[in-house]
UniProtKB/TrEMBL annotation, chain A:
<dbReference type="GO" id="GO:0016491">
    <property type="term" value="F:oxidoreductase activity"/>
</dbReference>
<keyword id="KW-1133">Transmembrane helix</keyword>
<dbReference type="GO" id="GO:0005886">
    <property type="term" value="C:plasma membrane"/>
</dbReference>
<dbReference type="InterPro" id="IPR035973">
    <property type="entry name" value="Cyt_c_oxidase_su3-like_sf"/>
</dbReference>
<feature type="transmembrane region" description="Helical">
    <location>
        <begin position="63"/>
        <end position="84"/>
    </location>
</feature>
<feature type="transmembrane region" description="Helical">
    <location>
        <begin position="172"/>
        <end position="194"/>
    </location>
</feature>
<dbReference type="InterPro" id="IPR024791">
    <property type="entry name" value="Cyt_c/ubiquinol_Oxase_su3"/>
</dbReference>
<dbReference type="InterPro" id="IPR033946">
    <property type="entry name" value="Ubiquinol_oxase_su3_dom"/>
</dbReference>
<keyword id="KW-1003">Cell membrane</keyword>
UniProtKB/TrEMBL annotation, chain B:
<dbReference type="GO" id="GO:0022904">
    <property type="term" value="P:respiratory electron transport chain"/>
</dbReference>
<keyword id="KW-0472">Membrane</keyword>
<feature type="transmembrane region" description="Helical">
    <location>
        <begin position="304"/>
        <end position="328"/>
    </location>
</feature>
<keyword id="KW-1278">Translocase</keyword>
<keyword id="KW-0406">Ion transport</keyword>
<dbReference type="GO" id="GO:0005507">
    <property type="term" value="F:copper ion binding"/>
</dbReference>
<comment type="function">
    <text>Catalyzes quinol oxidation with the concomitant reduction of oxygen to water.</text>
</comment>
<feature type="transmembrane region" description="Helical">
    <location>
        <begin position="183"/>
        <end position="207"/>
    </location>
</feature>
<dbReference type="GO" id="GO:0005886">
    <property type="term" value="C:plasma membrane"/>
</dbReference>
Amino acid sequence: MKIDASKPLEYSTEENNNKIFGFWIFLGAEIALFATLFTVYFVMVNRFASGPSGPEIFEIGPVLIETFLLLSSSFTIGLAVHAMRHGYKKAMMVFMAITLLMGLGFLGIEIMEFFTYVHEGATLQTSGFLSSLFVLLGTHGAHVTFGFLWGTGIMIQLWRQGINPATANKSFIFSLYWHFLDVVWIFIFSFVYLKGMM
Amino acid sequence: MDLERFKVHGEPLIYGAMISIVLATIGIIVGLTYFKKWGYLWREWLTTVDHKKIGVMYILAALLMLFRGGIDAMMMRLQTAAPEMKFLDAQHYNEVFTTHGLIMILFMAMPFIIGLMNVIIPLQIGARDVAFPRLNAVSFWLFFFGAMLLNISFVIGGSPDAGWSAYFPLASLEFSPTVGNNYYSLALQISGIGTLITGVNFIVTILKMRAPGMKLMKMPMFTWSVLITNVIIVFAFPVLTVALALMMFDRIFGSQFFTMANGGMDMLWANLFWVWGHPEVYIVVLPAFGIYSEIVATFSKKNLYGYTSMVFSMIIISLLSFLVWAHHFYTMGQGVMVNSFFSITTMAIAVPTGVKIFNWLFTLRKGRISFTTPMLYTLAFIPIFTIGGVTGVMLAMASADYQYHNTMFLVAHFHYVLIPGAVFAVIAGFHYWFPKVFGFRLNERLGKHAFWWIIISFNVTFFPLFFLGLMGMTRRMYTYSEETGFGPLNMLSFAGAVGLAIGFVILVYNIYWSTRYMPRDTTGDPWDGRTLEWATNSPIPAYNFAVVPKVQTRDAFWSQKVDNIQLYEEKITKIHMPSNTGKPFILGAIFFVFGFSLVFSLWIPAILSGIGILIVMAAMSFDRDHGFYIPAEEVIATEKKLRGETV
Ligand code: HEM
Ligand SMILES: [Cu+2]
């Protein structure tokens, strides 16, 4: 393994460079995936048949908390990468832990929200609108869940091996993923909830 | 548990097939045990991360699927060979044309192309490997187990029956109550994820791992075509992922995406399917263009004419391919403006495609042509594909399409583009690159026999279908009456299909014969090739190139031979290699269980295997194997041996 000391650790080998580049391409595919889901949602948004429509079930309170949690966690993962560049393993782990906990909080609220919807008779089976809503939110939620597990795995590796080219590379890629989830959420927040409540 | 759901009710035909599958499986297991080959299979193949071996496995699986899909085709042609045939019933016919289409496109043409690109791309760009060798194995095993999942539908639970395009409401639980379309959504999903990973892997490989000096505009044409194809994969496959997921939700969890009531919208499926489906045909056809370009140049002993325009026409085709999807349903009530837009974009594709055809013709012009088997397929491709293209333009006219929509005319058209544009290409590529991989050529005489059988029979099979279509015979019609007058032409077409089958059998026999009797090649360059893959030894050593070549010109290897521009400067040093791993195989196998459980809504196994998938992924992430080094002495010895020198 050739290590190039002039570059940040996560970019220091050719393999690491390729991984980061590959991940960007993967994110391109993820953009296509979510763009399709949004399109489906926009097609379906007024097809609520005899079920409830968006404005009838959306509540701003929990959504604002979700947004706050996810946006802040995007900030803390940034701090984690910053700590990593300075070689502060402990600080990095703390910031990552905070990030993941906020992700968990986000998920908790989202699950509660889903329960409320179902309780109000708004289920996946009720209407085209609700099917598309659940699948869009659910796909994002599943990504956050996966991110939580993935991040936990990386933290274990960091804890065991410390910051080295491999773990730095993984952490950096994880941070890209996490930011991406945040961006998707901003779209969900604006075009599903805010627009739906107007 | 309701065991009835697993049973397939059928005629003697299906039971016969089931028994032969069981017997073949037992035969393979017994054979492997008897010859003590399990260890070899596991160490050399199932756990391999070598791009060449993965490519070979892709091609083997694709050939197997070619025969499975081919048998489906034969059964359909036999069923319609004469009026009022009683060979298949309507339901069985539906299942057969559905699996035929699916298997041919997704599990034969595409994997064959991906197999060739696995073998050749790293060599053509002078690299030691793909960017992510382990992920490459993951791609393969996901494809493989996805294909197996679709194939067992035939014996367990029933095959999909709503056409390869699975239009709703036909594919909904209401109209298609067997598990067949559950298999559709899950088998395609699993193999589709594999394809997406391939897409990412090869884009990085091509953009980041080219030999020093190989600028983008010095890349061989096959590499260019694969690069563009993989970009299409990365943008098109997520659409399929979503469509299949929604289908699964509708069928297994009762959501309302494509239903007729409760706000569902069946046309949403048609749109999503073809937003992926149209680019998909370019995913198989662009690499085929790349293969033909290599072959034309090699066997005309000339540079490819119009290199730059070849590249740009492929880029334009790839962009347009995303803008034409609605030409698949002009007649489903979408208005004049929409139809006109899609009509024009569709016809526009003919322009860059025409540019390519002329470039090939100009490459041939004044060339010193040698009529080898790969070259024959290339020469036959040009006129046949042109017929397909011209009839395509006929279909692209929305107003005329009301006439031939869903008739045999369409069936003839798409076979006239898909078979020369994909199947002939992979066969040509197979003959062309075979000696690179295995170190000996296929027999030319047998190759030409197979060629003539295939080319002539192809036209006998499909040309009559144009007329049948114009006479009004609709597609997917399982029988017809005497009075229609469709009988004679269908019989002709059946005869052609038999001829095609004979051609393919000769092709396979050729592989067997040549393996036993063809002389071995020690030059590594049996065709007098132009590009880098011919610059290393055959069969290709594990490390591809003993020394990474330095490229200065477009046809780098040709320049070394003709202008004496040397490729290699440095001396041989130790080479780093990735270690084999069984995890990708295990991951694929668990995905198979996961998919199967979902097909039958077996929730507990589904959850357990879902967790299993996460565990294997975690294990892959925690893996700290950094591979190993092949010492320089060993490399030198291998090189000598391959060149036929005694060590
Ligand atoms: C090798 C000889 C082949 C023969 C004799 C053959 C014959 C047929 C026949 C009879 C049909 C059904 C038409 C109908 O239902 O009315 C069909 C459909 C189809 N074929 Fe082939 N085929 C061959 C090869 C291929 C190949 C190589 C591909 C793709 C690469 C392909 C792709 C398709 C597709 C996509 C359909 C449509 C399936 C559907 O209706 O859902 N075929 N073929
Ligand atoms: Cu199309």
